[in-house]
Design goal:
The chain is an alpha/beta fold. It has helices at 19-36, 61-72, 93-101, 117-122, 140-154, 172-183, 212-218, 240-247, 251-256, 277-280, 287-307, and strands spanning 50-55, 76-81, 107-112, 128-134, 161-165, 187-191, 207-209, 221-224, 262-264. It folds into 2 domains: 14-138 and 292-307, Rossmann fold (3-Layer(aba) Sandwich); 140-290, Aspartate/ornithine carbamoyltransferase (Rossmann fold), CATH 3.40.50.1370. The chain is 38% helix and 15% strand. The longest helix has 21 residues, at 287-307.
Length: 309
């Protein structure tokens, strides 16, 4: 596989990468997808590198996906969980990371509850930083795997109508997806209750709609986001039942459309709230493709950032 470098030494957010960077990641991920589908799924690309996974927030899918990507590339892995570390005793983020770097770590994959934590870290340490989600700010690898999955399904993103439905206000997935889709030439519309649509969103060049049916009629693909109750300090709508009635996607609604709408979801799925089980498992859903593609895309990001050494 030919080595191609990115324009940035870290992956802190989609806002910091170019459309050319994303295309490079996608082309590299194409090759790695072949790797993970063959009998011997490992390559020695990161054999001499150590990657630290620092998760200051709970995670299942993202953490497992990164670990699998790192193992497929033959990297040595250090796993860190804030809930079982000295962070509980008052140790600062910088002290924690410096202690890990003293163990000669080359790359850091970090999830943190505070927006900008990865940017802060990148200014203080030498290792490559990959943002695995920082608060309600960005989740760049999720946006990359979503766009890669759409590219795989449609063959292109330019001119594609993509809707993002749900809790836009608290979603780092929504923000990263908007940045990525717009840079790649897609048209983006967000939809949800007015209380969950941030006031600044139109400044990002997206359309806003509060009606799910009209949004789905417009879209070629829809990314259904979950309600992030853990980030909500007040009630933004009367009840989950009412939210589901107005913004939930069920099989009846999906099959009433005069087209084969492609359905995505970043997970975890709240079945029966934003999406029904029948839709999650429907032939028009590419949710399991997203999961598989997540490993290939994260392998590509790790490989390309390591190559910038």
């Amino acid at each position: 596989m030919a080595e191609a470098l990115l324009s940035t030494p870290h992956l802190l957010g989609i806002k910091q990468v170019t459309a050319e960077d994303m295309e490079t990641i996608f082309k590299t991920a194409d090759g790695f997808k072949d790797v993970i589908n063959r009998p011997i799924k490992k390559v020695p690309s990161l054999r001499d590198m150590t990657v630290a996974n620092l998760f200051f927030e709970n995670s299942t899918r993202t953490r497992i996906s990164f670990e699998l990507a790192e193992k497929r590339l033959s990297a040595d892995i250090v796993n860190f969980s804030a809930s079982t570390s000295s962070v509980k005793k008052g140790e600062t983020l910088l002290d924690t990371v410096n202690n890990i770097l003293a163990m000669k770590v080359d790359m850091v994959v970090m999830r943190h509850p505070h927006p900008g934590a990865c940017v802060y870290l990148s200014r203080h340490i030498e290792a490559k930083i990959i943002n695995a989600g920082d608060g309600a700010h960005e989740h760049p690898t999720q946006a990359l795997l979503d766009c890669f999955s759409l590219r795989e399904k449609f063959g292109h993103l330019k001119g594609l109508n993509v809707a993002i439905v749900g809790d836009i206000l608290h979603s780092r997935v929504a923000l990263s997806n908007i940045f990525a889709l717009k840079k790649l030439g897609a048209n983006v519309r967000v939809c949800g209750p007015p209380t969950l649509i941030p006031t600044f969103i139109k400044s990002l060049g997206v359309e806003v709609d509060y009606n799910l049916k009209s949004t789905l009629d417009w879209a070629d693909a829809v990314n259904m986001l979950r309600i992030q109750l853990e980030r909500q300090e007040i009630r933004y709508f009367p009840s989950l039942r009412e939210y589901t009635m107005l913004y939930g996607l069920d099989r009846e609604l999906l099959e009433s459309l005069d087209k084969k709408l492609v359905v995505l979801h970043p997970g975890p799925i709240n079945r029966g709230v934003e999406i029904s089980s029948e839709v999650a498992d429907h032939e028009q859903s590419i949710i399991l493709d997203q999961v598989e593609n997540g490993v290939a895309v994260r392998m590509a990001v790790l490989y390309l950032l390591a190559g910038s050494n």
